[in-house]
């Protein structure tokens, strides 16, 4: 089996690869190559391999495709639990800029000493990625200071430099936390990097469609992303604004605003994820009993969802509409 995975022939469930890293190396793939194909940063991929973070279902599927694993098998790896729950082999590098300036060490010298790119050094300084602990010793030598002194300076600067990250905007911080590059998100949203940069700087409020997509990508509640984008609240949160035919959009916005997945809504309503997906795509309509469960879930007035229902069209009208 690929990567030395094991399976109990008589037991249920998918085979769990002992290490995604082992599977990747067995295929002769570098962490950077896999990260680029999945559309995340190399640091994010390495955290997945150590089970320090769990990717979204969409990214699990993408990772499984690159590693030539069944999706269930890749998902089972993360379901096994956290490998290093208390260990973080990285540190914030916010203080690095001040340290190297005090010692008049240019970023290129640090990049050469640590065998990384100059852009990586800048990325540590702005908080886009974290400084690996394994590089502390050569970094301390490059800066002409002891390791303990360096670690103390890095840790002390963590709280004082959080405002530096805020200057980039909360949207950018959400993107960094999710492990996406600006170029990758811009490509997924179908906009230019300049447009995304303006959204992240707060110069322009992104449209709701883009905010919903970012909420999905960043695995964050719609309310959090909307607040970061300074977009206020969508009209679909207020039942008084609902019109006949708004039900699919209403259900989608309510779910995303509350930070719920389709699977969680399905479990609450006693139905399948596919059915909830059908509600949000106007392929199906929830039954009255399911509507009442949705109203309790979202703390809505009784029978308020009926306002957003579209009256059933005659068969001939439905055929014409489906043919369009």
CATH topology of the largest domain: 434 Repressor (Amino-terminal Domain)
Q: What is the CA-CA span between the terminal residues?
A: 48 Å
Low-confidence stretches: 1-14, 82-88, 158-167, 312-324
Range of strand content: under 5%
Number of helices: 21
Rg calculated over all Cα atoms: 24 Å
Numbering strands along the chain, what is their spatial order in the largest sheet? 1-2
Output the helix-strand order.
HHHHHEHHHEHHHHHHHHHHHHH
How many distinct folded domains? 4
Averaged pLDDT, please?
78
**Shape type:** elongated
What would you call the structural class? mainly alpha
Largest sheet: 2 strands, antiparallel
Number of strands: 2
CATH homology superfamily of the largest domain = lambda repressor-like DNA-binding domains
Instruction: State the oligomer.
Output: single chain
Judging by the overall fold, what is the CATH architecture of the largest domain?
Orthogonal Bundle
CATH class of the largest domain: Mainly Alpha
Domain HTH cro/C1-type: 20-74, 96-150, 171-225, 251-305
Organism: Saccharothrix hoggarensis
Protein name: Helix-turn-helix domain-containing protein
InterPro entries: Cro/C1-type_HTH, Lambda_DNA-bd_dom_sf
Secondary structure topology:
Layout: H1 20-26, H2 31-38, H3 42-49, H4 57-67, H5 71-79, E1 90-91, H6 96-102, H7 107-114, H8 118-126, E2 131-132, H9 136-143, H10 147-160, H11 162-167, H12 170-178, H13 182-189, H14 193-200, H15 208-218, H16 222-228, H17 247-257, H18 262-269, H19 273-280, H20 288-297, H21 315-323
Antiparallel strand pairs: 1-2
Helix pairs in contact: 2-3, 4-5, 7-8, 7-9, 13-14, 15-16, 18-19
């Amino acid at each position: 089996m690929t990567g030395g995975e094991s399976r109990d022939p008589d037991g249920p469930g998918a085979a769990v690869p002992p290490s995604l890293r082992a599977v990747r190396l067995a295929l002769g793939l570098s962490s950077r190559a896999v990260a680029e194909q999945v559309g995340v940063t190399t640091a994010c991929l390495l955290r997945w391999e150590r089970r320090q973070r769990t990717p979204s279902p969409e990214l699990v599927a993408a990772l499984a495709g690159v590693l030539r694993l069944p999706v269930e098998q890749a998902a089972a790896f993360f379901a096994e639990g956290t490998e290093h729950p208390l260990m973080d082999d990285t540190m914030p590098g916010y203080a690095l800029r001040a340290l190297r300036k005090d010692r008049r060490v240019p970023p290129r010298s640090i990049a050469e000493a640590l065998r990384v790119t100059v852009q990586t050094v800048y990325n540590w300084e702005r908080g886009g990625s974290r400084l690996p602990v394994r590089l502390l010793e050569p970094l301390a030598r490059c800066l002409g200071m002891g390791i303990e002194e360096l670690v103390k300076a890095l840790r002390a600067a963590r709280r004082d430099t959080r405002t530096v990250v805020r200057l980039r905007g909360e949207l950018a911080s959400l993107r960094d936390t999710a492990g996406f590059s600006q170029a990758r998100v811009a490509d997924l949203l179908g906009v230019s990097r300049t447009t995304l940069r303006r959204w992240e700087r707060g110069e322009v409020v992104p449209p709701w469609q883009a905010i919903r997509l970012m909420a999905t990508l960043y695995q964050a509640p719609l309310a959090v992303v909307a607040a970061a984008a300074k977009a206020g609240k969508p009209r679909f949160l207020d039942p008084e604004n609902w019109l006949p035919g708004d039900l699919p959009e209403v259900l989608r916005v309510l779910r995303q605003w509350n930070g719920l997945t389709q699977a969680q809504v399905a479990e609450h309503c006693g139905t399948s994820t596919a059915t909830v997906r059908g509600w949000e795509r106007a392929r199906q309509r929830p039954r009255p009993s399911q509507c009442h469960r949705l109203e309790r879930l979202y703390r809505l007035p009784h029978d308020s969802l009926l306002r957003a229902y579209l009256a059933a069209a005659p068969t001939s009208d439905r055929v014409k509409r489906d043919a369009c």
